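Design job #97: recover the sequence.
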């Protein structure tokens, strides 16, 4: 009978040890999973940051290009405006008047 109690006690002890090892293993698995998830989240955040930076740079470049186009268009309009003004003056005023005005 004592041997039966001892066997039962030993079996309970081994069962408790097994359960403890299982709890530790589960905790390690959960910790490893959480660590992987944190790493993946950090990588995702980094990729998003890089994508945002690249997009912002493209927007800045696009704005600079548009601003340069506006400057070029204004210069062209001023040039064409001056040419048209000269053509209108030549067409409206007689040639003698223009020669006298130049002197």
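Job complete. Output follows.
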């Amino acid at each position: 009978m004592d041997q039966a109690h001892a066997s039962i006690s030993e079996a309970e002890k081994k069962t408790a040890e097994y359960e403890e090892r299982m709890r530790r293993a589960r905790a390690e698995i959960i910790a490893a999973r959480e660590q992987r998830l944190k790493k993946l989240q950090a990588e995702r955040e980094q990729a998003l940051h890089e994508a945002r930076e690249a997009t912002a740079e493209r927007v800045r470049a696009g704005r600079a290009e548009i601003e340069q186009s506006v400057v070029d268009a204004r210069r062209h309009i001023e040039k064409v405006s001056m040419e048209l003004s000269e053509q209108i003056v030549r067409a409206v005023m007689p040639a003698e008047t223009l020669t006298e005005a130049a002197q």
